[in-house]
Specification:
The chain is built from twelve helices and eight strands. It binds adenosine-3',5'-cyclic-monophosphate (CMP). Adenosine-3',5'-cyclic-monophosphate (CMP) binds next to β4, β5, α10 and α12.
Amino acid sequence: MVGGVVLLILIGKSLVALGIVLLLGYPLSTALIVSASLAQIGEFSFILAGLGVSHGLLSKEGLNLVLAGALFSITLNQLTFAGADRLIAFVKTHPGLRRRLEERRSRRISQLEAELEAAREQAEQKASAHKTFTPEELLARFPLFAGLTPEQREVLILHFRPSASAPGERIIRAGDQADLIYFISSGEVEVHVGSRRIKLGPGDYFGEMAIISGQPRSADVTAIDYCQFATLSQRDFRQFLRRYPVIRNQIAALAAERGEMNRQFLEEEADGGRKVADSQASR
Ligand code: CMP
């Protein structure tokens, strides 16, 4: 009787544990260690059995069987671990057996690998759809970014979004709120300041003034060619400026220069207008 109970604990309990751990998809070595660890009943069973007797649910004989089972299974525990070690070594030398026992796990792993591969492909497709420049192209076209490491350029490129305009298309309207800064990859645009037209081409950028000042757009900008741009959102551009103060100073200096140039243009135009009005009045 005691022998049956001990066998039930040692073999029955560990087989159930082995099956459950394998079904959950863990490796065979883990399943064997777990089942060896569970091939015993501990001191908690004494308490439970004692309670069972005091409530009249278990006979004295039952209590004795539990005690004997616990003592034997605890004593034999070292042996079960040694057995598990041997079994692990045996299975290692028999890959076919291991494959069969771990079939569920390897199926799950290949499924996860396939899902991971699909996700990676999707991310690459997304990135290449948004790709505007390689880090080398960015540097060749915009020397402004020469101070960045190749990795920093990679990160910046990830934030760029491509956009395009046809000739005659107004890209920025004076007075609007700022949303993007535009880096010209190809084509030309015209900035309208009063009656003046300032041409910008590949390697130039525009739309920075309103983002830096927080004021509305300072001028109209129109495509005079088929243009391609890499744009940065206001948020990403601000973050970029915060991260790279040297580049921020360069961009801010050009924005100030452009602002000053526009003030002079507009003043000259206003002066010219006044002179024409005065000469008309004196005639
Ligand atoms: P923003 O004011 O945001 O929108 C219009 C843009 O035109 C402005 O930023 C500058 O990028 C650009 N711009 C304005 N004035 C000049 C200028 N004098 N020379 C070149 N670009 C300009």
